[in-house]
Design a protein that fits this description.
The chain is an alpha/beta fold. The chain contains six helices and nine strands; from the N terminus they run E-H-E-H-E-H-E-H-E-E-E-H-E-E-H. It has a single domain, classed as Phosphotransferase system, sorbose subfamily IIB component (Fructose Permease). The termini are far apart.
């Protein structure tokens, strides 16, 4: 079934209150697709996530490679879906494997090797910054830093400029 991929998001918490109470109603999504190698095949964690979701929201969980082979980024065709990645590396890996999104929301990233604090919920490592720089400069992906839809978006280009100077 084709999906209208309404949001591609990096959030290390995956499914939680901001997704359930803000993004799903805002987008009017009926489906969440999680691409995560650690979660794929973990029956216990999948069960916990399913218990948190409203019954009318479908959930699909795939490894990064299976996800990139199965789904194509498209808009305005099919049910609205939210795609979730646990980290920036997985989002870039998925892009490189064929899931070519044009916009990426960064909602929550906590790096133990924090090089830059972009917002109260986004702490990027040098590797994260390199990946985001590659996505914006080489791939033309627009990066949106915000936790919820009504929050003002942070500008990753400014952060990258400051970091490179």
């Amino acid at each position: 079934m084709p999906f209208d991929i309404a949001l591609v998001r990096v959030d290390n918490r995956l499914v939680h209150g901001q997704i359930l109470e803000a993004w799903i109603p805002y987008i009017e999504a009926s489906c969440i697709i999680i691409a995560d190698d650690n979660l794929a095949g973990d029956f216990f964690r999948e069960t916990v996530i399913r218990m948190a979701l409203p019954r009318d929201i479908d959930l699909f969980i795939h490894s990064i490679e299976d996800f990139a082979k199965t789904y194509r980024y498209q808009r305005d065709k099919g049910e609205k879906a939210i795609v979730l990645f646990c980290n920036i590396h997985d989002a870039l890996r998925s892009y490189n494997l064929g899931f070519h999104f044009d916009s990426l929301n960064i909602g929550n990233v906590h790096s133990e090797n924090c090089a830059v604090c972009c917002s109260p919920s986004v702490f990027l490592s040098d590797e994260d910054i390199q990946h985001l720089s590659s996505m914006t400069k080489d791939l033309g992906v627009r990066i949106d830093i915000r936790r919820v839809p009504k929050e003002r978006s942070g500008d990753i280009r400014e952060i990258l400029k400051i970091r490179s100077s």
